[in-house]
User: Fold this.
Amino acid sequence: MKEIDELNLPEDLNYAEDHEWVLRDGDTVKIGISDYAQDQLGDIVFVELPEVGAVFNKGDEFGTVESVKAVSELYIPISGEITGINKSLEDSPELVNTDPYKNGWMVQVKPGNPDELNELMNRNAYLEMLKGME
Amino acid sequence: MRYLPHTEEDIKEMLQTVGSESLDALFSMIPENCRRSEDMNLPESLTEWELDKLMENLSNDIAASPEYKSFVGAGSYEHYIPASAQYLLSRSEFVTSYTPYQPEMTQGTLQAIYEYQTLVSRLLGMEVANASIYDGASALAEALLMSIRITRKNKVAVSQLVHPLYRQVIKTYFKPSGYEIVELPYLESGLTDISGLKDLEDFAAVAVQSPNFFGCIEDLHTVGEMAHEKKTLLVAAFTEPLAFGLFKSPGSLGADIACGEGQSLGIPQAFGGPALGLFAGKLKYVRHMPGRLVGETVDRGGKRGYVLTLATREQHIRREKATSNICTNNSLCALASAMYMASTGGTGIRSLARLNYDKSEYLKSAFRNAGIGIPFEGATFNEFVVKLSGGSRKAYDRLLKKKIIAGLDLAPYYSELENHYLFCVTETKSRAEMDRLVQEMTS
Assistant:
C-alpha cells in the first residue's frame, strides 16, 4: 500500500470524509473515490452504480464498490440528482484503480444544494485528515 | 475432505498449545448463565437390537412405502434412486462435504459442486446456478428477496397455485421486512389467472409454479412477457424438476430466476427432509444471488482448479449487507442430485420423464373411464386433480386400510375444493397397482 506522501491528490478537487472526491464541472459535479480509497480497497472487481434520475440526500448510500477482499458502500458527499453514470466501469471496474480521477469517475450529479460544496475539504485539509488517521 | 473426530489426546495437545487447562477453562469467557451446568437429560443408550425394535415399532405406525402404495406427490416424489448414486454418496470424502473454504484441501468437493451447478443450469435452462440452498420453499422466498434487491421495488405477486407450504414460508420470510405479497387467483382451468398482471405497477417479481400445485403446466412464456413489459421479473418455481425432461425449461420460457425443490433428483423422501433447494438465474443478476458459488479457474501453473467465488456477497464478508443470511449450501443433497443426474444423463432424464407422464396419463384415463371426474383439463406431468363424489373421505379411509394412499385431500389447502384429491404417479407405480387403485375406488 502507498505511503501518504505517495498519494496522488489533485489540487482542483474537493474531498469528503468517506474518501469520495468531487469535481465541479459547470452545473454538475463528477464524483469518484480517492487514490487513498482505491489503494486501501485493492483490486476492484465490480462497481454498482445507481440509475440515472435517482435522487439522494447528502450521506446516502449511492452504490457499492467490490474489491477482491471487501465490499464498501459509496456515500454521496452532496445532495442531488444523478444525471450520468460511468458505464465503462461495468466492463472495466479496474479503471477505478488505474485512473481514479479521470476514467475511473463514478457518477455525475446535479447538486440539490450548491452550498454543500463549500463544506467539502480541499486537498490540504484532506491530506491532514489522512495523516491524522495513521 | 475427510472428517476425523478429535481423540482425547488431540484435545489435550491442542489445549496445551493454546495454554488452556481444560475445555471448561477454554470456554470460560462465555457467561455462566449461558452455559449448561447439569448433564443433558437423555434416555439410557440402547443396544443395537433394542434400537432396531424401537424403529420397527415406529415404522409400523407410519404409512410408508414400499409396504404402502402411495399416490401422493405434492412436493415430495417417490422415484427410483440408482445404486451407483447411493454408493458414490456414501464415500467418506463426500459424506463430510462441508463448506469447502480451503481450495488447496478440497478440490474434489469443489469440483463436485461445480458439476452440480452445471447440471442444474442445464436442466433449468439458466445461465448460472448456485451451490444449492435448503429446500424449494426457501429457494423461492430467497428468489423473491433477490428480485426486490435487483428491481428496488418492494411488492411481489405470487400465484395461489404455488405450493401452499411454500407460500407460508414466503410469508414468514417477508413478515419482518414490510414487503408486500399479492396473491394471484386461479382459473377454472387449473391455471393461474394472469389477466391482472397488466394492472400491476411497481412489482419486483411474479412467482408462478410450473407444473403448478394442481399438476398443470402453466404458460410461463406469456407470464414472462407480461411481467417484463412492466419491468417485473419472472420467478419460475417448481416442485418436480423431472418435468423439465419433457416440458420446456424455465430458462427457455423467459424466467429471470428459476428455483424449487430438487428432492426428485436422487434424494429419498425421508418423511419430508432433508431436501434440496435448486436456485438458478441470469448471469447479469449473479451478484444479487444468495448462497455459495463455485467457479472454475487456473492456478499459478495454468492448471484447472476450483474455488468459492463472488464470496463478497456473503455474510462472513458483507455482514448485515449480505445478499442473504444463507452462507452455506445443502452439499450432501446437492451431490446426491449431481450423481443422480450424471447417472441418468440427458436422455435418461428424458425417458424417465416420459415414463412418468405416460403412467400418469394412463391413470387419468382409467379414472375417466370409471366415471371419476378430472376437473382441470390442461396438460399435466405426473400429478393431476380428481373430483370424487360426496363421501370420498370414506373411500380414502377404506383404501388406507388396504395400504393404498389415494391422493392428497385438497380441502385443507383450498377450502373451495372439497372432495378434490391430488394424485401422483411416478415410474415406481405399475399398471397392476394403478388398475387396483381404480378398482378399489369404484367398488
User: Anything to note?
Assistant: The longest strand of chain B covers residues 233-238.
